[in-house]
Amino acid sequence: MSTAIVVGAGPNGLAAAVTLARRGVRVTVVESAGTIGGGTRSEELTVPGLTHDRCSAVHPLGVASPFLRGLDLERHGLVWRHPEVDLAHPLDGGRAAAMTRSLPDTVARLGEDGPAWRRLFGPLAGDFDKLLAEVLRPLPHLPRHPLPLARFGVRALQPAALLARRWRSVEARALFGGVAAHGFHPLHRPTTAAVGLMLIAAGHRYGWPVAAGGSQAIARALAADLAEHGGTVETGVTVRSLADLPPSDAVLLDLAPGAVAALAGDRLPPRVRRAYRRYRHGPGAFKLDLAVEGGIPWADPHSLRAGTVHLGGTLEEMAQAERDINRGRMPERPFVLVAQQYLADPARSRGDVHPVYSYAHVPHGYSGDATEHVLRQFERFAPGTRERVVATACTRADAWSRYNANYVGGDIATGAGTARQLVLRPRIAPDPYRTGIPGVFLCSAATPPGAGVHGMCGHNAARSALRFLTAK
């Protein structure tokens, strides 16, 4: 029986381990933290009894992932719960745009821009499973579904700010721009439309759900599947060198490229070591968790029912804020992502006190306290928020790496969303998961297809490892 060690028990490390174990490989996962999950951990951060997600909170790509859907994780307690409104984007004066899983409903909400929204997202959502099968793989491959991929690719290469011109209203442009801003990259740059297109198409196909009980449920379900197939997980194990690991046939690293360079040292081929050290990390996130009595008093009715709310104002405001953070400047009005998971999953609350998740986009490594910046954005669209907050907890951008070493400088996407890294991460190679050391593979979100709780980085890396093991 072949053996493998996976370093890191985030969703990609666990996905790699499950893929290997299901093929008969004896797998051990080692994790430096005391709990598994990486970006899918959940804790009581503000007041006892309230469940907060530490990083990843809403999962359009998780519910859509062909890998996760193929595991039947419901047997291990994973349940997806959907809010009434998937996404709201409030604007000044009590106006707002909103998206639901229903394309006709969203089209109706957008008024005169509805037909243009349908023309763009109707085909993408209709062919979403075919499209996802293409984009969740490394770029160099022979497409099985060339037409959906081509339809997506022509638009995905555009800057988000340019693509948004197909809509006339401030509301529709802001709704798309807020989703595109998930990429932490200036919206006037090429390929920034890709994130908005994918996440909105996923929303119209599968919705933007949360995991019942917290995102930790995803990690627990993966670990249960791993155990069912003979794999084991050891927490509290810090690996500082490949030499620290016991002998095995394969090693998979759920780590950022810079950490792999440090871990492997001179064992890496020089060209790979240079590429890993040059790997770029993007802007950071300043996270503010709130315990709110009675919920956030939004001025618009859509946000009151939305699982996710984007606080960024108009497309132009968001474009300027994203430009600022990528230049190392802290904007006065940063883009803020808010999740109200309790609306779909009430068990996270205690009585009338609810957990509210938020983070602001800030410069890489930002060491300042952005609490006031975030609260001012709340007050802008939900006057009276401060009076309802009973407790807070924050994570500065420069502190994220203490929670998860992959989040260098607060980069929770494990890599800058540049055009090159969007398609050729972490380096130019026919097999981006191979490190150049025989039997050692990279399986973190620094590999294709990138950030998101979909498990495909780990699954793809494990498939590469299986090809290596078969050829031995």
TrEMBL record:
Pfam family, one: NAD_binding_8
Gene3D superfamilies: FAD/NAD(P)-binding domain (3.50.50.60)
Signal peptide: none
Listed SUPFAM superfamilies: FAD/NAD(P)-binding domain (SSF51905)
Highest taxon in the source lineage: Bacteria
InterPro entries cross-referenced by the UniProt entry: FAD/NAD-bd_sf
Name this polypeptide is given: FAD-dependent oxidoreductase
